[in-house]
Amino acid sequence: MAKAIDMSIEEIYNLTFGDDDFLYSGYGTGLPPLSEDAAPCHSESSGLNKYFVIIIYSLVFLLSLLGNSLVILVILYNRISRSVTDIYLLNLAIADLLFALSLPIWAASKIKGWLYGTPLCKIVSLLKEVNFYSGILLLACISVDRYLAIVHATRTLTQKRHWVKFVCLGIWGLSLLLSMPIILSREAFKSDDYGFVCYEDLGKNTTTWRLVLRILPQVFGFVLPLLIMLFCYGFTLRTLFEAHMGQKHRAMKVIFAVVLIFLLCWLPYNLVLVADTLMRTHIIEETCGRREEIDQAISVTEVLGFLHSCLNPIIYAFIGQKFRYSFLKILAAHGVVSKEFLARHSKPSVHGSSSGNTSTTL
Q: In whole angstroms, what is the distance from residue 169 CA to residue 179 CA?
């Protein structure tokens, strides 16, 4: 009996809470206690009302479903005049649409936890990871296309559309590869602390493996594409300003807006992951308070990242003149609006691009 009672604090903690604080989505920051004599950190509320989050997810789902479907329709309709940028934006819309289909499941899991088994846990986690990586990689490709077209005035690569298709296939393949570590480790199980969850199960060496599985995708799937975009758009902007070509490349404003919105939505989430990684490697001190703050920040910034999937179509509609015209042309072709109404919204002028124009939809 005495032997049974004589348990270390860490053993009691593991028995009660498990090896991690199981957040059913995102990356939890659960680490073992600071020392054998330290009391375990008890998880608090994330500070986000679950019903508020459900409402946000539902609105994002509806807006993303409608908006990205329209983007796909407009780009596919302009088959003959479709540009290289359009092909990248088409794939971006497909990625956002696929991710949006998983939002009702994420929303439902906020109520009673994850009740949908391991296969669906892996699928929705895959959609989330692939959406993020494919998004930033496609934006990086657009930046390279604009850089070659404007700074070097070359059309060699982007005029050959079959090469662009291979690039897009490569992006989807790389996104799947970067997502594999998380997907292979995702499991659905019940935690004493958080109930039914969809989370990583990495065995005993949780901290070490999670550091490796986080750093590699972050470097190749976020940092490097971001550096490519900064380099390409830096030189592109300089060339446009020096040549006083701002009006000729008004569609660049749309592309810059798309990149800016992507960074505003996903950069906070990734910065929080960096802070968590620094805490795990003891570069910054780990305390219960800091761990709880990072957990809350992950919950909030993850919702912001999910919001991104519905924003691109809104940008196209409000800023992209060609997108509005192309959409009205589809409506006119099916008799929804009159040709007179379409004529009053004359087609925007077309100026310079790697494939004749920057984009037929922007």
A: 15
Residues 52-99 have pLDDT tens digits of 889 999 999 999 999 999 999 999 988 777 788 889 999 999 999 999
Question: How far is Cα 276 from Cα 44, in angstroms, rounded to an integer?
Answer: 17
The number of beta carbons lying within 10 Å of the beta carbon of residue 181 is 19
**Does the predicted model carry a pTM greater than 0.85?**
no
What does the alpha-carbon distance between residue 305 and residue 57 come to, in Å, rounded to a whole number?
Answer: 11
The beta strand positions in the chain, using DSSP E, are 186-191, 195-200
DSSP 252-312: HHHHHHHHHHHHHHHHHHHHHHHHHHHHHTTSS---HHHHHHHHHHHHHHHHHHHHGGGHH
DSSP-derived 3-state class of residue 154:
coil
Residue 288, token pair as written in the block = 């219960």
User: Is a pLDDT exceeding 60 seen at residue 1?
Assistant: no
**Tens digit of pLDDT for each residue in 152-201?**
776 555 456 678 889 999 999 999 998 888 788 888 888 776 678 887 77
What structural domains does the chain harbor?
Answer: 2-31+48-344 (1.20.1070.10)
CA–CA gap between residue 312 and residue 64 (Å, rounded): 9
237 Cβ partners below 8 Å, 6+ apart?
Answer: none
Question: pLDDT tens, 16-49?
Answer: 333 333 333 444 333 333 333 334 565 555 457 7
Q: What is the distance between the alpha carbons of residues 18 and 11, in angstroms, rounded to a whole number?
A: 9
More confident residue, 248 or 137: 137
**H helix or E strand, kind and range, residue 139:** helix 117-146
- pLDDT for 356 equals 43
- At 336, the amino acid letter reads V
